[in-house]
Amino acid sequence: MAGDHSHSSDQPDNVSAVKFAGPPSCGHACLRGALVSYMILFWLIGAVILGMGIYAEIAKSDYQGVTTVLLSPSSIMIALGGFMFILNFIGWLGALRENLPLLKTFAYTLMLVFVLQLVAALLAIVFSSQTRRIVDASIQRSIRLYYDDPDIHFTLDSLQLEFECCGGADYDDWDLNMYFDCGGRAASSCGVPYSCCVASLNDAVPNTQCGYKVREGDPHRLSLRGRIFIRGCTDALAVWVNDNLKYMMALLIGLSVPQLVGCAMTFRFITQVEEELLLFNYQQAPIEEVDFGEEYPSIKPIQ
Asked: How far apart are CA 232 and CA 139, in angstroms?
């Protein structure tokens, strides 16, 4: 009885047998610091992309037809920058406050983005013919809006000069634009933009009228060599992708690695926070109610 009394006085009821948690370990603090730094970096990158997109959208706000362009470069930059800005702000706030719902929102969203990237890449490879048609349709749509949106105007000119191509399937796609349509009455009808001209590659000041009337009379394509690019941009892009496939794979991996690192750090930090919360609950509960289980084997009662 004396032995029992002595034992009960050393360990009274409602006193937890779990070791009390001290300040956060170096590993926990270092991981949180690395995670916060990671999120601040990509939050700033998102802010820069968002700002550039908004600036480009404001700069072209006086042009007609802009509101109909849903996939213009500036709109894509605004969507991408805004997504990165919001997501990394959520993650930063969750890491700073050790808020599990915010951390899980960030981690699972980042993982979803990574999976969608892989799925998109695989679909583009497996369904290459459908991808080709999508690219061709996108170029043709851009041709129709060539004079309606300065972003599309600049992008299409840059594409044609960089890849030395003209139109989507070929230069006759420029019939889709009312200003180059051979049935139109514009001065540029039955022509192509200056960016289709071979001479534009070397001209310091481009001759914007070099492509006027070049398609008049439906000339044979070989007769236009030396004047305009006779290859379509869809074919040019397909050849470029095939020639640079290994670099594109390296780029995909380069984009995926930071995402995987962010996911790994976030999930590890979530586990640490959950262990600390579980340990805190153990400290508050009577010893009879403590159930350590097997999920967190690193948390053990004092023997």
From this structure: 10
**41 or 126: whose pLDDT is higher?**
41
pLDDT at 299 over 80: no
0.70 exceeded by pTM: no
Q: What's the CA gap between 186 and 252, in Å, rounded?
A: 44
pLDDT digits (tens, 9 = 90+) for 227-254: 999 999 999 999 998 888 888 888 888 8
Which residues pair with residue 228 across a beta bridge? 197
List, in order, residues 6 or more apart from 284 with CB less than 8 Å away.
Answer: 16
Determine whether 89 is exposed, middle or buried from the number of CB atoms within 10 Å of its CB (0-12, 13-18, 19+). Answer: middle
Give CB contacts under 8 A, 24+ apart, made by 75-80. 77/49, 77/50, 77/52, 77/53, 78/50, 78/53, 78/54, 79/53, 80/46, 80/49, 80/53
pLDDT in tens, 44-84: 999 999 998 888 777 765 544 433 444 567 778 888 899 99
Q: Which residues contact 155 (CB under 8 A, 6 or more apart)?
A: 73, 142
Whole-Å CA distances, 178 to 40, 63, 185:
47, 17, 9
Backbone angles phi, psi at 301, to 5 degrees: -75, 160
Dihedral, CA atoms, 109, 112, 114, 115, nearest 10 degrees? 170
Cα 159 vs. chain centroid, distance in angstroms?
A: 21
